Amino acid sequence: MRFKLLIKVAGLLSVKPGLWATAFRQLFRLAESGWWKRLPFLPIPNQELIEFRSKTQYGSLETEIEAVDVLAWLVWSKEFQQLKN
What we know:
By secondary structure, the chain is an all-alpha fold.
């Protein structure tokens, strides 16, 4: 599930190069602690965080997170970071 979402988000990001740095930064900020010590050696967010986000955004754990929603969040993250600077 998580890997499929990452692939979809990567596809959307391929046409939005202005968000690549933001996506990379956020991926490592949300990565599970010690991700480099465990297979598949990718900075994938913690399952509890994904469940929390799914529950708070969609109201259910059964609803999968949509790639376009992740993209919208990355846009917001980039704009918020620019406001802080």
